[in-house]
Specification:
The structure is a homodimer.
Chain A: H1 10-24, E1 27-28, H2 29-36, H3 40-52, E2 56-59, E3 62-65, H4 73-79, H5 81-92, E4 100-103, H6 107-115, E5 122-126, H7 129-136, E6 141-145, E7 148-151, E8 156-158, H8 160-167, E9 171-175, E10 180-182, E11 186-189, H9 192-203, E12 205-211, E13 223-226, E14 233-236, H10 242-250, E15 254-257
Chain A binds a DNA duplex through α3.
Amino acid sequence: MSAAPSDALPEERQREILRRLSSQGRVVAAELAINFAISEDSIRRDLRELAARGLCRRVYGGALPVGQEQLPVSLRRALQVETKLRLASKAASLVRSGQTLLIDAGSTNSAIADALPDRMNLTIVTTAPDIAQRLMDRQGFEILMIGGRIDKRAGATVGAQTALEIRRVRADLCFPGACAIDLDTGVWDVDSEEALIKRAMIESSGETAVVVTTDKFGAIAAHHIATVDQIDHLIAEHDIDATIHAAFEAKSVSVYLADKDR
Amino acid sequence: MSAAPSDALPEERQREILRRLSSQGRVVAAELAINFAISEDSIRRDLRELAARGLCRRVYGGALPVGQEQLPVSLRRALQVETKLRLASKAASLVRSGQTLLIDAGSTNSAIADALPDRMNLTIVTTAPDIAQRLMDRQGFEILMIGGRIDKRAGATVGAQTALEIRRVRADLCFPGACAIDLDTGVWDVDSEEALIKRAMIESSGETAVVVTTDKFGAIAAHHIATVDQIDHLIAEHDIDATIHAAFEAKSVSVYLADKDR
DNA sequence: CTGAATCATGCACAATCATGCACAAACGCG
DNA sequence: CGCGTTTGTGCATGATTGTGCATGATTCAG
């Protein structure tokens, strides 16, 4: 998945550590040592130095980002953080070098943006300031922000202006967020304006990938986004029903299951 | 892989180094030495020279592209916090209920956005995802995000599309960021594209407020943003020269000094 | 309380670096 | 052509920086 150069310059290493901190919310010294093929001592030195500069917080076993205090575990579970990271990393593996991606707002999509590898010459088009913000800190991305009125609930631009701008773009792959998915009727959203934007995204993209947590199957929402035959890829958790899996495959949707562990 | 003629001229070599920097995101001194069949000393000399010209950043073991040295925006904001907070709160006091504000990117402007009072029915138009993001968490703001290509250094959208969208807006007050300010020539920016955007902002606004730290007064920058008579308000620190203060006032610029303490 | 994991510290060694110097090729100019 | 100058290069030197290991100290889980 992400770059783990066997011979990284010290500076690069620290940069990558910071990146992982902000994208994954934590780093483990032992993992970093293996990843960089270097002794834990050097990793610890890096972490100590970053902490001294106020760029991370040192904790037993690794480090945490500064500022955002750790969420209570109960809240973390409710937000399904781990699950989304797993889905995101699987979703990111669909992306090929040089592609243009259209990325919707949402916490899962933010995670996908974080999971995108550097140095793949990707062009990212997004309606979410959050995603633009995250990718800004990294190299090798061309970022296009779609303008328009901000919908605070969605955390993204919406409305006619936004839809118009999206239609002026041509992307290879898009990741529209979904509130509900159904084998027969397709993908749904709770908000009519957002649904409008998502439909525009799909129409502007060569392929469409839908990333869903298991609770989205069976959920209901009022506004239609896409039919099943408009979906090319479905990324789901490893525990989805085998019959559902097969049924989507039968409708020529490529189904990918997130890894159990990471 | 790529062309690595054993008898490259120094200038050719440096050009190739820059090319690799931008395409690969880094160069390693030892690798370059082998590639060019030349001693590491010469490579180091090249890197030192390029770094002196500001075209790359020298690190232990090699070099990295410029721009990468800047900390993630989330962390950069930590610099000069107190000063900027004081300036920001003074700047925010210029705002009247119901107004439409055009806010540029930059850490000072982010602070201004934070300092804006709730419940004043403000409409905020911005090119900075960061600012959109911050205001999203708060009540009582209508937010308009200006779309376009993202300039990572600036942390904002830039380019023709962005300028076009700005010109479709009419604001009461704008806060363009400034890199340098001079009594005779006005306000300047280091980047030509950003300067273009800022000019558009000013032209789309009834009034213009420039917020500057004291170090901006002696500074120099290449691209003109505005003449002094285009500026309506100047917010500066309390320690600026009294003659400068008076001189701006004489040119009918309202000068506001940030409070010493808060 | 105990054992295992993690940590800071000091130290030795290796890699990388800046600097000065000598030499060679290219260059300008009489 | 001849000769001083400039420029680029490699090498030697000593300084700086990064790294791994050993040693105790500290922290954590059970």
